[in-house]
Amino acid sequence: MTASPPPHDPASLDPQVEQRLIDLEIKASFNEDLLDHLNQTVVEQQRQIDWLLRELTQLRQQQSDAQPATFRSLRDELPPHY
Hints:
Elements: H1 15-66
């Protein structure tokens, strides 16, 4: 019968390997924090987009209610500097 390998003891790790593991854990922690921050940003942007779409819909409705559908000439819409 073969002996099973001993359980991994952190104290028995090579110091370079241990440092690499610590560095990876630090990077993973920072990446997790960044991901949470980006998710919050995306959620906030979606709320703003939804609000802007509602505002745009209301403005279009107000405009269509206020003006009858008439023919508009581009000559009536000359810029102010003419």
